[in-house]
Amino acid sequence: MSQSFFMQPVQSECFNEPRGEGTLLSLSPERLLRGQPERRDWPVFERADGKVSTGIWSGTAGAWRIDFREGQFEFFHVLSGIGAIVPDEG
User: Fold this and answer.
1) 65: left (phi over 0), alpha (psi -120 to 50) or beta
2) Which of 18, 23, 34, 68 is at a distance of 20 to 30 A from 53, taking alpha carbons?
3) C-alpha 6, offset from chain centre
4) Which residues, at least 6 apart from 65, have a Cβ–Cβ distance to it below 8 Å?
5) Do 23 and 43 touch, CB atoms closer than 8 A?
6) Does pLDDT of 35 surpass 90?
7) What is residue 28's three-state secondary structure?
8) What is the pLDDT of residues 21-33, one digit of tens each?
């Protein structure tokens, strides 16, 4: 049996060393729960349809509400620091 396949080069990114200042992210007052957190983003990749993106994110101490639209999910891996995700019910 003969099989054929097509291989494409894979681009590898280092996710633990952000370059530059990143993009300062705004936080609307109605989402802010505690503190004055500074949040920054270093985008690495975004698929053309906008459904998949990767990058590095950082934030200082504080608390804010996160509202994902229906069908939207997020995966993250903490490289340093601590955090908590708490549902509205506590």
Assistant:
1) beta
2) 34
3) 31
4) 30, 31, 33
5) yes
6) yes
7) coil
8) 999 999 999 999 9
User: How is residue 26 annotated by DSSP?
Assistant: P
Distance from the first to the final alpha carbon of the chain: 58
Q: What is the mean pLDDT of residues 4-15?
A: 63
> CA–CA distance from 12 to each of 21, 45, 50 (Å)?
21, 11, 20
Most confident of 5-14, 23-32, 49-58, 65-74: 23-32
| pLDDT for position 64 | 92
Instruction: Measure the CA–CA gap between 50 and 61, rounded to whole angstroms.
Output: 29
Give residue for tokens 């099989």. 3
